[in-house]
Design a protein that fits this description.
This protein is α+β, with helices and mostly antiparallel strands. It has eight helices and twelve strands. Helix content is 35%, strand content 30%. The longest helix has 15 residues. The chain is globular.
């Protein structure tokens, strides 16, 4: 067992990627969140608050894991050795007095939550179990759904922002400012709408990685659910992104929502790994 670990903080996304990108790309789908986030930081396309935390966990000159936070959002962890976590907790405590939550592989996030709770005296609870899916080929639809896909335009922004807020309420997630995020995505042509006379569903292409992109904010209003719009919108948006040159697409699902999990598997998304959220009261 290695008894001593180096937690190396990086002042910039460029410095972090110089050290960690090759390791992250060994399993790109698993690390899509961090790869997309660092690309966003490098481009300056964000509203995050300082201090931003980007760290590698290293042993004998090798990267063994990463930790990251873009306030006001939660702390994120990649897979890493459990015996490195005490050193990581101490390093993070030197940057933040409190944390809202932690997201990471189940055994890593659970142990971190225990250690942080003990150190800070803050209760912790399991909040959500999620699964990362990846797709490189879209399965043909088993039935036709009326409508067609189009890219959201500036005139659609009020609806897109309202649906972004509704998605976060329904899914129990927090992006910092969904309105600012959706405004940026619309300006980049990264929000897709499924239209059947009127707009029925939306999906967004978020946080591109070197070879892929994450699908998120898949939302259909309550009154329009059960008609296949979410499946059709996600399938068509995914195919358009693959046709544009992406090798694969990723997405996260809430394991407590069997409907969304079934939708994505029908399209061709395959499970990669699980992650969990722990909240700190």
């Amino acid at each position: 067992m290695i008894s001593e670990w180096v937690v190396r903080q990086h002042e910039s996304a460029e410095g972090f990627l110089d050290r960690a990108e090759a390791w992250l790309l060994e399993t790109e789908a698993e690390h899509n969140l961090l790869l997309g986030l660092t690309a966003q930081l490098r481009e300056g396309d964000h509203d995050y608050e300082p201090p931003i935390y980007l760290a590698t966990i290293e042993s004998q000159g090798r990267v063994e894991g990463s930790a990251f936070r873009t306030p006001p959002l939660k702390l994120g962890l990649t897979r890493l050795p459990l015996d490195a976590l005490p050193a990581l907790v101490e390093d993070i405590a030197g940057v933040y007095d409190t944390l809202p939550a932690v997201l990471g592989p189940p055994h890593v996030a659970e142990r971190f939550a225990q250690l942080w709770s003990e150190r800070s005296g803050t209760p912790q609870r399991l909040a959500m179990r999620q699964r990362i899916f990846s797709l490189s080929r879209v399965r043909p639809a088993s039935r036709a759904v009326p409508g067609e896909l189009r890219v959201a335009e500036a005139a659609d922004l009020p609806l897109v922002c309202a649906w972004g807020e509704a998605f976060e309420r329904d899914a129990g997630v927090f992006s910092g400012s969904s309105n600012a995020l959706m405004t940026r995505l619309v300006s980049r042509g990264a929000v897709y709408l499924w239209c059947d006379e009127e707009i029925r569903c939306m999906a967004a292409a978020m946080a591109p990685t070197p070879n892929g992109v994450r699908i998120g904010f898949v939302y259909t209003p309550d009154a329009l659910r059960g008609r296949g719009y979410a499946t059709a919108c996600t399938r068509a948006a995914t195919q358009r992104l693959l046709d544009a040159g992406r090798r694969f697409c990723f997405l996260y699902t809430d394991l407590a929502n069997p409907t969304s999990n079934a939708i994505y598997e029908r399209i061709g998304y395959e499970p990669i790994c699980d992650v969990v959220d722990y909240d700190f009261a």
